[in-house]
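*** Fold description ***
***
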Amino acid sequence: MALNPPAWCTPALLKVLLGLMALCLAGYILGPPLYWHSMEGLAAVSRSTSVAASADSSSCPACVCDCASRPLLSISHGGLNNISFTDCSKHDPDMNEDTEKNFAELLTEELKLREAEALENQQRADMALLEAKKITSQYLKEADKCNSGMETCEEAREKAEAALAAQKRQTAMWEQRARQKGWKEGVAKSRAESQGNVQAV
């Protein structure tokens, strides 16, 4: 018995629904970045046009600085007003001399600090160099000891090889004499064994 699908569940309708879901999903994923990107572009365009319009309409008036009537530092509602200080100090020769003296003193102090730091670094480097020289000297002494020990061992090995070679020559000479006198290796072993058995009884 075959199942009949309902009339509203046709393949064309399913394709349309799937296409609509895909479109909604793409809008959900790509929508916010595109929205913010376009808003930033519009804000940049509107900012550039408003800056250009305000630059054309207004110009900065000339600043007047009467240093004699104003205090050196004036505190306004917004805090310390540094602009008046810098403008007035430019025209005051006593202030320039004091500033130059203070600046020179600061530079001298900075140079002394850097010199002391460089001297300290130099002393550390010298100490490290001396330590490295000591360690190198110790390693060289150990290497010399090893070399002399190796030479002694080599000499002893050569002497042992020479003594072994002499002993082999002497053994071969005695074996040759014994064979000349009629000694055979198998006969000598059987005689030694028989003599050992007789002594054991």
